[in-house]
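Hi D.,

Good news: the full-assembly prediction came through. Inputs first.
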Amino acid sequence: MQKGDRAIDTSPVVSDEVKYTTCYMCACRCGIKVHLKDGTIRYIEGNRDHPVNRGVLCAKGSAGIMQHYSPARLRKPLKRVGERGDAAFEEIEWDEALEIATDWLSGIRENDPKKLAFFTGRDQSQALTGWWASQFGTPNYAAHGGFCSVNMATAGLYTIGGSFWEFGEPDWELSRYFLMFGVAEDHDSNPLKIGLSTLKGRGAKIVSVNPVQTGYSAIADEWLGITPGTDGMFVLALIHELLRAGRVDVDYLLRYTNAPWLVIDDPGGAEDGLFARDGEGGILCWDRRRNAVRPALDPDAAAALKGSVTLPDGRAAKPVFHLLAERYLDNAYAPEAAAKVCGIPAGTIQRIAAELAEAAFEHEVVVDQPWTDWAGRRHEKMIGRPVSMHAMRGISAHSNGFHTCRAIHLLQVLLGSIDVPGGFRYKPPFPRPAPPNTKPAGKTGQVRPNCPLPGPPLGFPTGPEDLLLADDGTPLRIDKAFSWEAPIAAHGMMHMVITNAWKGDPYPIDTLFLYMANMAWNSAMNTAETIAMLTDKDSETGAYRIPRIIYSDAYFSEMVAYADLVLPDTTYLERWDCISLLDRPICTADGPGDAIRQPVVAPDRDVRAFQAVLLDLGARLGLPGMTNEDGTPKYPGGYADYIVNHERQPGVGNLAGWRGADGDQEGRGEPNPRQLERYVENGCFWHGKLAPEARYFKHANRAYLDYAVDMGFKSDADPVVFQLYSEILQRFRLAARGHGPVQPPEMHRERVETYFDPLPFWYPPFEDQVGNEEQFPLYAITQRPMAMYHSWGSQNAWLRQIHGDNRLYVPRVLAEAHGITDDDWVWLESRNGRIKAQARVMEGVNRRTVWTWNAIGKRAGAWNLAPDAGEATKGFLLNHLIDELLPERESGYRYASADPVTGQAAWYDLRVRLEKAAPGEAAESMPKFPLIQRPPGLEPPPRQLRYGAAFHRKTGDGLPPGDGA
Ligand code: SF4
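Then the structure:
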């Protein structure tokens, strides 16, 4: 192209250097190639070799440039000099910032480590942050899982030793029927897009169960606009139909599940509902041929699936399958009953059940690959049922989400479609034992001054004795995770931290330390009250009720204004990072994988990667894992040093690829000083490959189980037996009935008895149960847009052009009833608050549901957006309507608005009333909060942010100049 020629050059040289790294514009961790020109980022491309995205890049990933060059980036550590919330800060040097933090934290550690509450948001370094908390000695740690999808993770781990997304994926290449629940355009974003297009290309049927028909639901072959919070009923009605028609995989149930295990039937007894065991503790089944009990795992036993038997000790017992069939064949789960609850016709439920059965049992998939099972039985072929499922936050974030998620796994197991050709497939290191063996640390006596915890703060209780309770039964954690309020809160309860810390319930804390958690805005239920709690002072002392707040973020989010000390983080393109098998890796069903981020460019501000800061703080505090015996830092090279040299157990570290001194080992091996170089040479990821005989039936496959032990994924090569009936839940229930040494206080007994049902069941979400039906007849939920990920995306100059504000989507039938047309302003009211929003009428939504995009609304002034930005004037959040607590009980106690088993925040339980705004009301969203002032160091944002104009100027191609980045 000639200089000055206006013809389009279709192959311009856009870069003079390309660096590989991992995207962090959402949680998927796609591989990317960052093109640089003259040291600035010019262009981001998908890495075609990467196992997660295979070259696919979404709008968010491409717009990473604008995240990196965002005008909202913090520039230097800040110390509060005014009142909280005023954003009155002074810039300080890092030495002073770290001295302040060390001073505050060392005092806590010397006296009472639990007075530090350390919580992180969409943190992809939880292997480090959790370990750091444990080394500090506080049990008060969690990441954001408690308000995201812990129901999904926990229900899966307690049932099949795995779950969806990072735990497993559909067999996209062989599946014939795909059922998808509550999935918006997030979580497994690019892999799901690739998978759905594979299914479409193959003509497989896709059914989406979702109140809203957007994104993936819009391309489904069939959309079922279910009423929010009723998916569990729908799934159990499918199970009712399959059982009624005798369309379940009996052979699969006998081989891989606890269906034949005997359950003691001894009402009132201390072991009622537990598995029958022999003298050595071995679980028993009933052998039909011998007419006697046998070890449940005896491969030669002809195990019975039904009938009542008499145990050698005289007690009665029934197989799990018998109890299961009794439960779900009941008319309470008949399609006609479910239809009344779910808004899906009974005939549709019957048809979907029949279609599932047809796909599973009449279209077997046969892979010509011999394999040997855990008991040594050789199988000539791998035979599977080509039905797969995926579910996500839409079903998880309800107060009945745990049992709903378990019901979905139950359905998959009954169809024989777990880790078989065409079904759901585990991604190594899953399956884990159901549940994994880790228990939460932090019991009385385990939290001691200047001592680390004896284990990680998060884990998987298997009975009341694993709870973190004081002698009087009160919670030991500030968020009340692992207490009687939420016994299996495996990801903690981040949504309760600020409320409980403010109340001093169960005790006051000293310092709240947050990372990437915008808890003063879109990461809080009950936003206005959260802000009030963050700023509230003791009327006698004048001191803040939450005495100290340290916050780390790369951007000027709403939360920054409420911190006393701000530690500015880098962007994801400026640091080393590690996507570890110890945390949330990037495996596929065909092999384990992990990845790194490398600094693509150096920071141009006085910021530091939070992970490096955490290690520095750890060394300053003398935390044992971060300090040598002579007191010097153990990882003087920062996070990169830690990634390579830290070992969680001998030979097992953060990265599994290129281990050993020569880099020739995978999984286990001593640290390799050149490991990061090898990752960079390989495009910043490692992906192992399973042997062909280990690809399916991983829960019971000798080759895979041995491999898992070699790699350090499992401590033994025992099979993972699917827990259709959860004895663990029954143990809690027995405690509520007055058995065992650890029992709930009287006030919690009925609740534990009700919700710790060992078989999945459906109950209405709690907001439906508090008598709101007439006053608040509608449901309100959010969906995640394809082009945004939480509040990160809605400050991004490119992505804001797609979603610069949000509308409240109203089903046409409802809009007509209220006289609402497009762009009318409406009020939405819940028992907790009132918001004003602009409406948009649509067809594809459940007729009792209104919805909007997640996290678009911004507080005026935050994120360095103009105060009159659309996000602040028209954008809105549903968060203002949601209460983090349920209404007061008769006793005066208020439970968290959360799942009673896992503590998962029940965002999607929200009930509302809709009303058209009066004529003449201001055309702006409500509520409004005072403008947040820009902190020192942040320049006013450019009037127009036109990235790329600077490049055009340089090349002199005649395009008009712009403000540039
Ligand atoms: S799906 Fe997520 S990780 Fe992948 S490119 Fe898009 S934003 Fe990045």
